[in-house]
Amino acid sequence: MTEKKVITLSELKTVMEEVATNYKKIIEVVQHNHSETQAEFQIIKGDIRSLKEQAGVLTVDVHGLKGQVALLHEGQTEIKNSLKQKVGRDEFAALEMRVARLENKAA
Q1: Are 81 and 89 in contact (CB under 8 A)?
Q2: Which of 15, 31, 32, 107 has the fewest C-beta atoms lying within 10 Å of its C-beta?
Q3: In sequence order, which residues have a C-beta less than 8 Å from that of residue 95 and are 6 or more positions away?
Q4: What pLDDT, in 10s, does the model give residues 52-75?
Q5: How far apart are CA 8 and CA 27, in angstroms?
């Protein structure tokens, strides 16, 4: 037959006190870690807020650049069109020679 082990009331109190002490330690550690985590979380929230503000500024800058690029494109198109209307070097040289021949004939 097996012996029954009996726990006395004082032994039970001692075990319960140890359990309570261990729980208190665990709770203190968890609370400490939670405080640190909360502080880090606040820092992260601040960083995210700052990044959002910077993204907003960059968005405004990009829109401004798009407008400037559009203006440059318009100017480039105008320059191309005006260059197309101008006489090339070869054509100008031929016209100059023609004018010189005509002047020589007239003189």
Answers
A1: no
A2: 107
A3: 87
A4: 999 999 999 999 999 999 989 988
A5: 28
List pLDDT tens digits, range 13-36: 999 999 999 999 999 999 998 989
Q: What angle do CA 103, 82, 67 make, to 5 degrees?
A: 165
Given a contact cutoff of 8 angstroms between Cβ atoms, the answer to whether 87 and 95 are in contact is: yes
Q: Comparing C-alpha atoms, which of 52, 51, 33 is closest to residue 41?
A: 33
Question: What string of H, E and C letters represents the secondary structure of 4-44?
Answer: CCCCCHHHHHHHHHHHHHHHHHHHHHHHHHHHHHHHHHHHH
Place of tokens 């502080």: 39
User: Hey, what amino acid is at 7?
Assistant: I
Distance CA 17, CA 10 (A): 10
Taking the C-alpha atoms of residue 91 and residue 84, their distance in angstroms, rounded to an integer, is 13
In angstroms, rounded to a whole number, what is the distance separating the alpha carbons of residues 54 and 52?
Answer: 5
